[in-house]
Model the fold of this input.
Amino acid sequence: MSEQPKYGFDTLQVHAGARPDPATGARQVPIYQTTAYVFRDAEHAAALFNLQEVGYIYSRLTNPTVAALQERVATLEGGVGAVACSSGHAAQIMALFPLMGPGRNIVASTRLYGGTVTQFGQTIRRFGWSAKFVDFDDLDALRAAIDEDTRAIFCESIANPGGYVTDLDAVAEVARDAGLPLIVDNTLATPWLCRPFEHGATLVVHSATKFLTGNGTVTGGVVVDSGTFDWSASGKFPSLSEPEPAYHGLRFHETFGPLAFTFHGIAVGLRDLGMTLNPQAAHYTLLGIETLSLRMQRHVENAEKVARWLEADPRIERVTYAGLPSSPYYERKARICPRGAGALFTFAVKGGYDACVKLVDSVELFSHVANLGDTRSLIIHSASTTHRQLTPEQQIEAGASPDVVRVSIGIEDADDIIADLDQALEKATGMARAA
Ligand SMILES: *Cc1c(COP(=O)(O)O)cnc(C)c1O
Done:
């Protein structure tokens, strides 16, 4: 599906997946706002339905605008194919769906987006799936958590709410030894900061809602396949290795080789779960990705400036950002995401919970929202919002203890971002910086 990268990242983020429209010559990818596609004849229709020929049938499965996005993200991640979905959470279910079944489990990092902890800890139980949460810095605990029913290992490259970088090389080695796929949520890093496949990941998932689109207009998600996992080796992944009854006994892995996971995602996952991305949303995300590296560069530059400024502030207890030399993850960051630790981090305010609440009520330039990865600077008090559903222990494990606020640093002038935090901290703590 994805082309061999003969160009560099900045070129591919503009061009991958996008050819001039064959009907009109349109240079930008058109929004193919259509539900269905006319078959050439009955034979053509039958071949498409049998997966003997690849083409467009119905937009729950495939759409040319969405296909351009899939190819672009797959190319930027260095994968062989991708499936776009209606949200990041949809992408996570779509990644697990072909691997799991009743009684099966995943082993997941404790350091995850709050919504993912809830999805894995609670909701997937309704499918008979379960998750075991482990500290991924403790590789013995990770190994010990894997059992006969484990079907995947799941973590985030840079973990939400920020400040933590997973040692993907070490975790991938554990997964490889156990014969299991490693799924990495690369939302906070984006392929510009981290390419999980180069560190041994099998699948990458994205919330395209965040930095990929980059401007807070869309909810979307993507699952990308490295094409490197042998789905037939262990007999543990029958959806991919055994005959599929709804396609006349076709075996996806045998038939489609490295594209098995992607084809299954479209032909079975989107067909039956229906968590499809719409073409309008795909268009916005394609536009966003055109400037991904430029934005990420500025996001990182600003985040480093703001984090350093906060670390030197007497009103701040601590700053948790892997881009600071004081971070225990600074060395690891240099290996896993050498271009920077992203734009998301937390800081603890002297005065605890009450000061945090007052801070988010006092900012003017920052927006108090449950989102991240926008061009705008965003702030949230995780313990009272995104991580509210978690137990106090889970909050602390996830890096969202009650005295911390999470910021997603935008691409505005760094001086303006700092000035806004300065005035809001003064209101929140009753202290001026140079008191
Ligand atoms: C937002 C987010 C998700 C969920 O994505 P949605 O698009 O909101 O469904 C998953 N993982 C991470 C790291 C996120 O930041």
About this structure: Residues 87-89, 113, 115-116, 156, 160, 185, 187-188, 207, 209-210, 219, 221, 372 surround pyridoxal-5'-phosphate (CB under 6 Å). The longest helix spans residues 292-311. The two ends are 60 Å apart (CA to CA).
